[in-house]
Structure prediction request, 356 residues.
Amino acid sequence: MNTSTRRAGLSVAAAHVLGLVLLVAGCSERIPEKVVAEPDHADHTATAPQSTQGAKVLLVHSYHPEYPWVDAISRGVIDTLEGTGVSVEIFYMDTKRKTDEAWKARAGELAQRKLQEHQPDIVITVDDNAQQYFAKRYVDGEIPFVFCGVNADPSKYGYPASNVTGVIERAHFKGTLQYVQHVRPIKKIAMLSSDDPTSVGALNFMKQDFVDAEVVEWNLVSDFDEWKEAVSRYNDTVDAFGVYMYHTIKEKGNPTSLDPKTVMEWTAQHATVPTLGFFEFGIEDGLLMGVVESGFEHGEKAAKYALEILKGTPITSLPVTKANVGMKMMNSDTAGRFGIEIMDDLLDGARIVPEE
Prediction:
């Protein structure tokens, strides 16, 4: 990864309008209670600037700028900080395309170096790898941190802490299954995902949902041949299958992840039962339907917390929260391949892609 500062995907004019400097360089569903600092524990927001003018935010992404989820979160942060006088520097750890342990550790070191160079007033860390390989080393330190997009139980990283709060990510599993029932009766389903930390955490929490269907398999795979075999098997054994992530699937013997669109194109062409997605990009890439998460909401919530902290609100009064917005979404091209007519009950409040 190029470790130099890289500009976020906005024009110079747009950045000027925003008034931001964009430099890119076992689980329990219980949301953790807010932290109450020990009497001898320093409140790490005590020296935070009371005005946000000139404050600096370092936004550390686990992944790469071209990933739609990353882009949506960045937009949520940028739009929320518009006109506040806060500058944002973005660092990408690029751990979804490069998945070996040595690179993840190195990416965490590079993020640490960026923090030391930039000296931000607050850090926003996105997705689990940024917590595991970077942020958790600063727990109970002097620098305030806000996380978002975290799938694991945040206690895995020592969160919440006297200087850390944020937003956890939970898939709309039950809502998606209720939505697909409008298309076909679903008795048996399977869940398929790439074998990565994000998927492990997400599927563990999905298992806790009480759904009106039998989940016959929770399948995490890394190899594209294994992926193809699973899809072919599901065509004969379940009424539908869900796909959570497909971005770290590799050809056998190749350490570099495939283009996720290649994986999804094959999946969409060969699936003969409805396919369920949990992110906008999944439906856009060819999955049939789902109630999807909003990356924009994650970025917005994290940035709002950051602003509160910069204005002097103690982190201990800002509890870990959950992103709640779910949007119905359907791919009309995939629906056409299944012979599904998009009726009013599917259209109500839904986003249909491709958009005309």
Q: What stands out?
A: The radius of gyration is 21 Å. Confidence is low (pLDDT under 50) at residues 1-30, 33-49. The chain is about 35% helix and 20% strand. Residues 99 and 248 are 7 Å apart (CA to CA).
